[in-house]
Automatic annotation (TrEMBL):
Protein name (database record): Oxidoreductase
Protein's organism: Streptomyces amakusaensis
Record keyword Lyase present: no
Similarity remark: Belongs to the short-chain dehydrogenases/reductases (SDR) family.
Domain of life: Bacteria
Keywords for this protein: Oxidoreductase
Annotated signal sequence range: none
UniProt-listed Gene3D superfamilies: NAD(P)-binding Rossmann-like Domain
UniProt-listed PANTHER family: PHOSPHATIDYLINOSITOL-GLYCAN BIOSYNTHESIS CLASS F PROTEIN, PHOSPHATIDYLINOSITOL-GLYCAN BIOSYNTHESIS CLASS F PROTEIN-RELATED
Amino acid sequence: MAGWHTRDIADQRGRTAVVTGANSGIGLITARELARKGARVVLACRDEERGERAGALIRGALPGSDVEFRRLDLGDLASVREFAAGYRDERLDLLINNAGVMALPQGRTADGFETQFGVNHLGHFALTGLLLPKLLGTPGARVVSVSSIVHAAADLDMGDLNSEHQYRRWIAYARSKTANLLFVHELARRLRAAGSGVVAAAAHPGYASTNLQTAGPRLEGRRAVERAMALGNRLLAQSATAGALPTLYAATAPGVRPDSFTGPGPFGWRGAPRPSWRAGWTRDDVAGERLWVASEQLTGVVYEGLAP
């Protein structure tokens, strides 16, 4: 794993990938590098203009690449269902659950969920479940969920998943990222119990320079905070390309283990991909099952064929 880079990505010809949030940041880099290696890539993005622009950028940089925009709003379960129903490709080798929001002011999704929990976890939970038959039918398929080292700031509050009792933006974000890791843990356990070869793994980008840090302050008009975040990106963060490496490693490197967590090393901030530390509560079987059951109830998406 030492020194692993995009040049080490294996040939992806004949494989199909869905990358959520592929219009910018590490999602765009992930989609571009998979396309560079020959994969057919579906750019699953909420904003049509930005999604189409991202597709044009990749095709311009990589003539002949097979990339396609399809609209997906993870904050609207009707959109998630529409995307999954419209996915008619015969195979799905890689599902990259990358899209996310961070430290936003309190808000609700179209279905009434707290925005960060609803987008970062529930939307991807529903999407993965609805696309599961395609994944199960594709030899060597993988699901990679992008979490964050910030997950360590907060365990889930199973009695208040939607932050109805108290809302603190960074705690809500940390809990949504803990939910990502618990989801991967439980998905990997259920896939193993079903005898499936699908690999569920997680990754995080460390501190990467993307628009994720500035979106919340910009939304609220907090210009000083936005400028401070932008300055931090310039002075301290690694590039979006470097931040995408852990995701690309988890998606394509040989021997990636189920329920693994890949991040930049050695301190989880920047550097080449390597196994990352994670909080013990993200491998709690009881918590994983409780979150799974709650997520099925909240989304109405039941994972057929994956028993408890």
